Amino acid sequence: MVRCWDLLILTCLNLLKIKNAIVNVKNNDEYCIIWAVLSALYPVAKDARRVTKYIMHFNKIFNFRLQIKDIPKFEKLNNLAINAFGYSYENNIDSYCPL
């Protein structure tokens, strides 16, 4: 059974994907939120998924590991609004939810 909330999230995510408003920076470290924020603050024309496009900006505003619980504090300090979504794939079903 699909709930209205699920449809709303999927519709919003699909619209954002079509507009190229979502960048999934591929990384193998604990700084995934930071790479996502840097990709929004410093957009690039090519290869936006690569960490190497943002590494030169890393120390400009970050010198700590940002966790989900730190987002409200980080938003206030930097005058930003961050929307974080989680994704899981179980039993052949894609699931998205706000974090």
Describe the structure.
This protein is of the alpha+beta class. The protein has one domain. Strands 1-2 form a two-stranded antiparallel sheet. The N terminus is likely disordered.
Strand numbers in spatial order across the main sheet: 1-2
The number of distinct structural domains comes to 1
N-to-C series of helices and strands: HHHHEE
How would you describe the shape? globular
Class by SSE composition? alpha+beta
- Major sheet size, sense and barrel closure: 2 strands, antiparallel
Residue stretches low in confidence (pLDDT < 50, at least 5 long) are: 1-5
**Percent helix range:** 25-40%
- Distance between the amino and carboxyl termini: 22 Å
Discrete helix count: 4
Q: Determine the strand fraction and express it as a percent band.
A: 5-15%
Average pLDDT over all residues: 76
Q: Count the E strands.
A: 2
